[in-house]
From TrEMBL:
Binding-site residues, glutathione: 113, 139-142, 157-158
GO molecular function, one term: glutathione transferase activity
Domain GST C-terminal: 182-306
Any one GO CC term of the record: cytoplasm
PANTHER family: GLUTATHIONE S-TRANSFERASE OMEGA-LIKE 1-RELATED, GLUTATHIONYL-HYDROQUINONE REDUCTASE
Domain of life where this protein originates: Bacteria
The protein's name in its UniProt record: Gll1700 protein
Record-annotated site: Lowers pKa of active site Cys: 263, 306
Signal peptide extent: none
Catalytic residues (positions): 80 (nucleophile), 205 (proton donor/acceptor)
């Protein structure tokens, strides 16, 4: 049999020979684990462990960072839920004129976030971190609350930045009377934050970044148990703490907004979509429709940043066409559970 006739009889479709498959799987798994170790550090069970922020300064009249309009700047990635929290609070409080925003883009080739244009002599977020702290070798993450006067990072922990934005810039806010972290509700807010952070906010990442089946199974069970609990709680209350929106809602919202867009598919959180929940789905639409919030939401950036840039989870880089976020403008019907304090529903 000639070589040409043998080639003619060789199947043109189907999988390559088994040996090639086994070799490819070995090589890809080895490379995948190496990339995941950098992208998503894990414990001995393969469960994702989120590193804590390294810059934990505060804004205050008697400290090194007094509240001033125009002095501070937020560095954010539009796809990032943690950075999105700061944009939502900035919009709800009406701080757009007092606190500027710079948008960074994820770049797998650069190994991190890059600036749309050079700022402070920097082209990447890593360079900005090094400018603030020479010799810094940790993770360069968003959000960043930056002091333009001293060229320093005040804080890079989203949970703390949103408390700062809510309480320390009221003299420059268009809606200073809106309290998202009121003293009388702080204990309740903190309890909700504790419940939602591990299982939901970080839970979706624990699913998507799990490096063993055991770690994934544990995370997915905790995630949907928490979502079921939230859906039941929202049956009789408009927001997590009652009739007024709080930071607990803001922190949950940015995860829910991304859930059907990215986490359901890419992160394997696919038991149910948020829109399949009667109360959680309507709650998401309610928050999305608050004045100024929709303007902080960029579904296309979310899809591009997750599907297009998380190479270990989506090697082909193919960005899906859906879902269509237009459903978030549909009526939510949650007014029956109580009016929002401060009249945000009526603000244009």
């Amino acid at each position: 049999m000639t070589r040409s006739s043998a080639a003619a009889k060789r199947p043109s479709g189907g999988l390559p020979p088994g040996l090639l498959i086994r070799l490819g799987r070995l090589v890809w798994t080895t490379l995948w684990r190496a990339m995941m170790a950098r992208l998503a550090p894990s414990d001995r069970t393969g469960a994702y462990v989120r590193p804590a922020g390294q810059f934990r300064g505060v804004i205050g009249a008697h400290g090194p960072y007094p509240p001033e309009a125009g002095r501070y700047r937020l560095y954010v990635g539009l796809g990032c839920p943690w950075a999105h929290r700061t944009l939502v609070v900035r919009a709800l409080k009406g701080l757009e004129e007092a606190i500027g925003v710079s948008v960074v883009q994820p770049s797998p080739e650069a190994g991190g976030w890059v600036l749309e244009r050079p700022e402070e002599g920097c082209r990447s977020l890593a360079q900005l971190y090094a400018l603030a702290r020479p010799g810094y070798t940790g993770r360069a993450t968003v959000p960043v609350l930056w002091d333009t006067r001293t060229r320093a990072i005040v804080n890079n922990e989203s949970a703390e930045i949103i408390v700062i934005l809510d309480g320390e810039f009221n003299e420059f806010a268009r809606r200073p009377d809106l309290e998202l972290y009121p003293a009388e509700l702080r204990e309740t807010i903190d309890r909700w934050n504790e419940k939602t952070y591990h299982s939901v906010n970080n839970g979706v990442y624990r699913c998507g970044f799990a490096q063993t089946q055991e770690a994934y199974d544990r995370a997915i069970e905790e995630l949907f148990t928490a979502l079921d609990t939230l859906d039941a709680a929202l049956e009789t209350r408009r927001y997590l703490c009652g009739e007024r929106v709080t930071l607990a809602d803001v922190r949950l919202f940015t995860t829910l907004f991304r859930f059907d867009i990215a986490y359901h598919g890419l992160f394997k959180c696919n038991r149910r979509r948020i829109r399949d929940y009667r109360n959680l789905g309507a709650y998401l639409r309610d928050l999305y429709q608050l004045a100024g919030v929709a303007g902080t939401c960029d579904a296309e950036s979310v899809k591009r940043d997750y599907y297009g840039n998380l190479f270990p989870l989506n090697p082909g880089g193919i960005v899906p066409a859906g879902p269509d976020p237009a459903n978030l403008n549909e009526p939510h019907g949650r007014e029956r559970l109580g009016a929002l304090a401060g009249g945000l529903d009526e603000i244009a």
